[in-house]
TrEMBL record:
Membrane-spanning intervals of the chain: 98-121, 179-199
Pfam families linked: EMP70
Localization: Endosome membrane; Golgi apparatus membrane
Keywords: Endosome, Golgi apparatus, Membrane, Signal, Transmembrane, Transmembrane helix
Protein name in UniProt: Transmembrane 9 superfamily member
Membrane-topology annotation of the record: Multi-pass membrane protein
A GO cellular component entry from the record: endosome membrane
Name of the gene: LOC102600734
Record organism: Solanum tuberosum
Similarity comment text for this entry: Belongs to the nonaspanin (TM9SF) (TC 9.A.2) family.
Signal peptide residue numbers: 1-22
Domain of life (superkingdom): Eukaryota
Length: 207
């Protein structure tokens, strides 16, 4: 019991032999289950579901004889053999609860980091903004040489310059946008609860 031994019945049911109590005040730390309740649901000549529950725990003592008993209960069911595992994929039972607080916390963290980066960029480009927004009445000042420009203004001409592999970049950008939209749609469906990987017919029912 200290190594958590368990037994396996013929029809695939698992159960622990007993329990090990770690309470120091208890003299009998090893407890053995002496009675097994087996509930079997069947459809015609096929077993659909088996449930095992254990009762009557007895302290394990040296030299003591224990009587092991079991009871079997048969119940008919309308579940077919092909759908016997649907009980383990029950959507209401295994539905994950949405942690709205964590989502809100992450959303606020994203807003905070976005604002922090924006403040850093604004402080860095403040001088350039002031210089480019200044109204110059002098024609010679408006026709200043490109060599006098500094900062991000130096690359303003490269914005409209076509890249070398335009078709390849367009395909990659289009594919990335499609995948990003797909991921966003899956996340939204998972949030509202219409998508669950354990329930294959959820989307068919919704749409």
């Amino acid at each position: 019991m200290g190594k958590w031994f368990y037994f396996v019945l013929y029809f695939g049911v698992l159960g622990f032999v007993g329990e090990l109590h770690t309470d120091r005040n208890s003299d009998n730390k090893h407890v053995l289950y002496t009675h097994k309740n087996i509930n079997i649901k069947y459809n015609k000549d096929q077993i659909i579901h088996v449930n095992l529950s254990q009762e009557s725990p007895k302290p394990l003592e040296a030299g003591r004889t224990l009587d092991m008993t079991y009871s079997v209960k048969w119940e008919p069911t309308n579940i077919s053999f092909a759908h016997r595992f649907d009980v383990y994929l029950d959507y209401p039972f295994f539905e994950h609860q949405i942690h709205w607080f964590s989502i809100f916390n992450s959303f606020m963290m994203v807003i905070f980091l976005t604002g922090l980066v924006s403040m850093i960029l604004m402080r860095t480009l403040r001088n350039d903004y002031a210089k480019y927004a200044r109204e110059d009445d002098d024609l010679e000042t408006l026709e200043r040489d490109v060599s006098e420009e500094s900062g991000w203004k130096l690359v303003h001409g490269d914005v409209f310059r076509p890249p070398h592999y335009l078709a390849l970049i367009s395909a990659l950008v289009g594919t990335g946008a499609q995948l990003a939209l797909l991921v966003l749609l899956v996340i939204l469906l998972a949030i509202v609860g219409t998508l669950y990987v354990g329930y294959a017919g959820a989307l068919d029912i919704i749409f």
